Structures are given as structure tokens and as C-alpha cells.
Amino acid sequence: MRRCLQFLFAYILAFVMMGCSKGEKQIIVGKDISLDDITEFYFTYASSTYPPDYQRYYFYAENDKHYFYHETREGDVFPLTEEYITVSGTKELSEDEWNTFFDFLKDGIVKSRQESDETGDSGPWMYLYWKRDKSEYQEFTFRNWDTQALFEDYCVNLKQE
User: Fold this and answer.
1) pTM for this prediction
2) Domain span at 36
3) Contacts with 30 (C-beta within 8 Å, 6 or more apart), sequence order
4) Is the terminal CB of the chain with fewer CB neighbours within 10 Å at N or C?
């Protein structure tokens, strides 16, 4: 009986560590969501530090074309609303650029969206939308921190073009 309880405890612990303790479904980009399925991806960072900091990167598909939009807000009040946009722009992406974008997202995890306004953290907040999405699973996490850092560098380079 003791051995059975040890096995059961180890099984439950493994289940909790995999993030499935709440029956939360996780969807993997590249396996469950293909490149052609992606319609929108938001990456937003906002901080109430002085001065406040705000940056949004937005990738989207529209009329069989792919786009990158960026927006920087600057000012000395928080929150920085749309009236504080100082730099913004839209760039149509080539197929290679869209494929590179997807390579960063590939193997990332999408799970049920959790609103986190009350936590007070600065983000980034990342949300992925795709065809046949029923608005259940949108909160995105990169496969690792290095990939996220490279993605941010990629966005800065696109922004400068």
C-alpha cells in the first residue's frame, strides 16, 4: 500500500509540474497551429516606472498579406494612452520575414488567457490569434527566454526599416 501511495504521489506531482493540474489545455505552435493559421500576434510591454515605458509589436495577416506594426508611447504620466504615441509604423512583410516571425513562435505554448492587470507587472503580455480560434487559448509563451530575446531584437530591426 505504501508503494502504491508513493507512486500516486509521484504521479500527481508530475501532473502538477506539467501545468495540467487544472486540466489546462496547452496548444503548441507549429504542431497544433500552423503558419497559415496565424492571424494576429501581440507583444506588449508597459511599465509605470518614471518615466513610464510602453512598446507594442503587432504582427497580422490581412487580405493574403502579412504586416508588422509597432508603437512606442512616451510621456511622464501613467498610463500612457494612445495620445502619447511618439513613434509608430506599419511594414508589409515579405514571405521570408513572415517565416522568420513564425520560426520565433514555433514550439511556443498557447494556453487559456489569464487577465493580469491586477498583478502590476510590466509584461510583456503576448497573445496569439489564429483561424478557428474560439477565444479560449490566446496567452502565448515562447519556448525559452533566449528565443524571446531574439524575437525582440528582430522586432527592433523591423522597426528601424
Assistant:
1) 0.78
2) 24-160
3) 102, 105, 106, 107
4) N
